[in-house]
Amino acid sequence: RRAGLAIDNSRLYRAAQEEIKERKRAEDHLQFMASHDALTRLPNRTVFTDRLTQAILRARRYPNRIAVLFLDLDGFKEINDSFGHVIGDRLLREAAERLIRSVRASDTVSRLGGDEFTIILPDLAEANKIKGIAQTIVNALAEPFNMEGYLLSVTASVGISLYPLDGDDADLLLKNADEAMYRAKKRGGNTFQFYSPQELA
Fold it and tell me: What is the pLDDT of residues 11-22, one digit of tens each?
């Protein structure tokens, strides 16, 4: 009888452990979905703002430069309208993967929504490094996307703002990178543009 009780207790223990693991997996999934974009699985705006704020705090303590990139896919709306949302979503996922491959492991790529992405490049000492990464991104997204046998082309307009030159908080840096992106788009897209208040005047 004791052996039977021991077996029952062991089963109950295993069942309880499995239930705890399942609950933990569900909690982890909910936490991930709350902080990441469901389509691309990139960090969302909340995580972007938090990481940029943390990067600014570090840069104040150990003086260094931060670049914020705001990019928009030129021609994406036409592809989405012509080929449908399924193809459009696949293209966005592939674009997200290309962005991740174009930057360093310490950088943050996030999706704000639609075809708008942002990137944080922390701990940068040289402006030339920023130009190199921005050009790598532009080149990567200019390569055709093979979507179910269709070779589809988009390009990227990239705006860049710098800490501390163009702002000392996350909201201002994002706003100025956004304005620089529109300057790049007005120049025909497929390029990057640094924020310049003189050009906006």
Answer: 776 777 777 777
